[in-house]
Give the backbone structure.
Amino acid sequence: MHNPLCPWPLKATSPRQSLAVSLNPMTEPNTVPQPSRWKSVTAWIVIANVAVYVLNLLTMKVVTTPYSQTVTQGLLFETGNFNYAHGVLGMQVYRLVTFQFLHNPHGIAHIAFNMLMLWTLAPVVEARLKGVRFLAFYLASGAAGPVMLVLLNRLGVLLDPNWMTQPLVGASAGVFGVMVAAAYIAPRDEIELIFPPIPMMLKQFVGIMLVVACVVVFGSGYQAQRNNAGGEAAHLGGAVVGYFLIRRMLA
């Protein structure tokens, strides 16, 4: 459940995307000063993710999974990932936060795509919500990921027989919340995929990502684990809560 958020890195092509946002999503845009990138909450979230990633690599060891598989896993990954057995049955609710700062240690793509997406889109949202409110928004959207995962498994939508012990890690539930919020604030801002170089409006890109997540979640059946349906379920949880939060916080 720790596949990359998106295989297509982004870059902002509209000056408003990186410098300003609209004061009202339904009106003409207005310039809103944003905090210096390296003094922003977004920057500290990225730094925290990278630091945890490195620390986890430094504590890697060989462990045996509940399925009797031998894998190499970091101490932080082991104690911080979210899974139903520990997070719900074990009442280790802190995992709703810690899992958001952990990523797949067997490669850099997972953390790289998540942080690139966050770095590209979060400033639009942070400029409107400001420091602590933005951090609360981000963490709440991220925490909604495991909640949606558990809900869909309980409802029988996901058919992964190992879902109770399957680890969930990654910032992408929070990132999906940020994506939806950015699309709500500046829907017509244009972004461009780095590969392939296709420009599109932000609302179009986010819509595509949500459709993909829905198709994977509701169409995987018994291939849920192989298709990362659990990860996509977490993405949907972050997106749903992010949408309702941004509407309420900007009301």
